[in-house]
């Protein structure tokens, strides 16, 4: 089967990727739940999360989204013009990516101890030695990620989205299995101490195995079955154009890309558990951002590219404005309620085992602070694709890099002395400032059509959310534990109490917000109501006595 022969409807592809994103986020929470249960917010968990700083930077430096944004358009045109030459171009990119991945990863493994000192300046010598060990296990995963990204680009070009959708699920599944099974297996096999997978080392091994299977082997096998032609090649006339287009994305280490790494680097200078608590809070914060932002970005980007190509500027602005209003209109109530219910949410997701009530109490304000910036995360995910659709990869990279340089002293000289809450605050403020800067640049260059009605809708949705928060607060203050104790004769477990509070509070908030938004911001839930009405009409038609039998 030829490379370009596969086809799949865009809506089905977007739905598949959205479902994959949901499952991946949930598996990520399950993975961190297992880690928090076993290790809590302690030194071992801190070192595990800190071990990802260098690998993630390498991945962002060499990949940085370049496959989907720069390689696919060039490769698509070459396949349309000359298939044999397209394979030569692909081989050139793959050869350089493989070579760079092996060299950079190898250098990272050799200098792991020195890199550990830089990325975790607050760790003592024993922790640095352990961190170095973790990094050397995790770093080879980047070779599989980076080489696999080339194969994944081919699959996207063929519109084969099933394997890319499986990649994060396999990856997270291998991490969980590695952490739970490898220590037990090494003990059963009687391996010498230096080969035992104790502590977090099993999870580290799962990272590399998951990358090898999910990110490289499976896409490679499917691409090979679709006619993959690969050779070692370091020259091609189109490679320089590809490199010049990709360089801004590769070198522009923006505040968005480095946000998580900053939390790990500067969190290492806090008391034990600082890195872990910041990671757990950020993990929950990024779930609604990933779900809503990914859906808006996946749904809007192909249309934005097509509208730019056809020169339909008014429709481009309208499509972008619709995507921004829809995503912001959903994230504001979600973030506000999550912040209101932060304690019960953390209790349900993480509390248990070595993650006790004190860790929940310490993590709650971090989660609330991070949630305040989620609307700007959503705007970024949609707006940056508008820049890319116009062929501008430089502006987001340059402005983001400048913001990164400006914010570093704030982290080191203000946030670290004040603690984890200050690191969360600097993170949220820097991301918000960066996105506002991008919005200002876009307005100056392209006009304000893309933001038409965004501010007004955001204010109306915020008002609805604040009013809906009143009955939700009342529901959350109910003495459910005492009531259940009277009914059952014993006080319920914290998980049961938290689930009950979330159920009552969430139901009151959702009902109140739905009623208020119907009047003040009807566009927010309009797609939901339309879908429900269509389903009701179909059901009504099917229930008629004269309806045809479709069995």
From TrEMBL:
CDD domains tied to this protein: MATE_MurJ_like
Assigned keywords, A-Z: Cell membrane, Cell shape, Membrane, Peptidoglycan synthesis, Transmembrane, Transmembrane helix
Q: What does this protein do?
A: Involved in peptidoglycan biosynthesis. Transports lipid-linked peptidoglycan precursors from the inner to the outer leaflet of the cytoplasmic membrane.
* A GO CC term assigned to this protein in UniProt: plasma membrane
| Source species of the chain | Candidatus Desulfovibrio intestinavium
Transmembrane stretches, by residue range? 48-75, 87-113, 133-157, 169-185, 200-218, 238-258, 291-311, 323-346, 366-387, 394-414, 420-439, 459-478, 498-516
Compartment(s): Cell membrane
The protein's matches in InterPro entries, at most eight in alphabetical order, are given as: Lipid_II_flippase_MurJ/MviN (IPR051050), MurJ (IPR004268)
Q: Which family does it belong to?
A: Belongs to the MurJ/MviN family.
* The protein's name in its UniProt record: Murein biosynthesis integral membrane protein MurJ
The molecular function GO annotations come to: lipid-linked peptidoglycan transporter activity
A GO BP term here is:
peptidoglycan biosynthetic process
Q: How does it sit in the membrane?
A: Multi-pass membrane protein
């Amino acid at each position: 089967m030829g490379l370009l022969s596969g086809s799949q409807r865009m809506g089905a592809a977007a739905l598949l990727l959205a479902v994959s994103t949901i499952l991946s986020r949930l598996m990520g929470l399950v993975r961190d739940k297992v880690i928090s249960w076993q290790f809590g917010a302690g030194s071992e968990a801190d070192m595990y999360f800190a071990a990802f700083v260098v690998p993630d930077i390498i991945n962002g430096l060499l990949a940085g989204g370049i496959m989907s944004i720069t390689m696919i358009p060039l490769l698509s045109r070459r396949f349309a013009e000359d298939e044999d030459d397209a394979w030569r171009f692909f081989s050139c990119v793959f050869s350089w990516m493989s070579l760079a991945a092996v060299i950079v990863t190898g250098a990272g493994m050799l200098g792991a101890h020195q890199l550990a000192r830089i990325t975790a300046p607050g760790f003592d010598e024993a922790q640095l030695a352990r961190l170095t060990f973790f990094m050397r296990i995790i770093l080879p995963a980047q070779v599989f990620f980076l080489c696999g990204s080339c194969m994944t680009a081919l699959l996207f070009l063929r519109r084969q989205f099933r394997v890319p959708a499986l990649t994060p699920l396999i990856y997270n599944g291998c991490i969980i299995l590695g952490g739970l099974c490898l220590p037990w297996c090494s003990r059963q096999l009687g391996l010498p101490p230096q080969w035992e997978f104790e502590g977090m080392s099993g999870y580290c091994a799962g990272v590399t195995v998951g990358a090898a299977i999910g990110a490289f082997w499976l896409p490679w096998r499917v691409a090979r079955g679709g006619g993959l032609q690969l050779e070692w090649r370091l020259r091609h006339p189109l490679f320089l154009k590809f490199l010049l287009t990709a360089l801004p994305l590769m070198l522009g280490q923006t505040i968005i890309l480095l946000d998580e790494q900053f939390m790990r680097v500067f969190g290492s200078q806090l008391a034990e558990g600082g890195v872990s608590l910041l990671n757990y809070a950020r993990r929950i914060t990024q779930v609604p951002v990933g779900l809503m932002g990914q859906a808006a970005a996946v749904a809007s980007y192909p249309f934005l590219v097509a509208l730019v190509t056809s020169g339909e500027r008014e429709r481009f602005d309208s499509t972008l404005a619709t995507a921004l209003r829809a995503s912001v209109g959903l994230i504001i109530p979600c973030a506000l309620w999550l912040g209101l219910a932060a304690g019960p949410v953390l209790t349900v997701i993480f509390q248990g085992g070595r993650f006790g009530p004190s860790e929940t109490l310490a993590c709650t304000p971090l989660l609330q602070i991070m949630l305040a910036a989620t609307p700007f995360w959503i705007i970024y995910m949609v707006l940056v694709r508008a820049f890319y659709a116009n062929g501008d990869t430089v502006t987001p990279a340059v402005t983001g890099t400048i913001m990164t340089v400006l914010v570093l002293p704030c982290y080191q000289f203000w946030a670290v002395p004040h603690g984890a809450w200050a690191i969360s605050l600097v993170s949220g403020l820097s991301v918000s400032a960066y996105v506002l800067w991008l919005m200002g640049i876009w307005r100056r260059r392209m006009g304000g059509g893309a933001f038409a009605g965004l501010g007004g809708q955001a204010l109306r949705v915020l008002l609805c959310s604040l009013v809906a928060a009143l009955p939700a607060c009342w529901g959350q203050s109910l003495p459910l534990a005492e009531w259940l104790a009277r009914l059952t004769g014993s006080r319920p477990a914290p998980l049961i109490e938290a689930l009950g509070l979330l159920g009552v509070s969430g139901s009151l908030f959702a009902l109140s917000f739905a009623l208020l938004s119907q009047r003040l911001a009807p566009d927010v839930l309009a797609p939901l109501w339309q879908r429900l009405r269509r389903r009701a009409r179909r059901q009504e038609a099917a229930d008629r006595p004269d309806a045809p039998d479709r069995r």
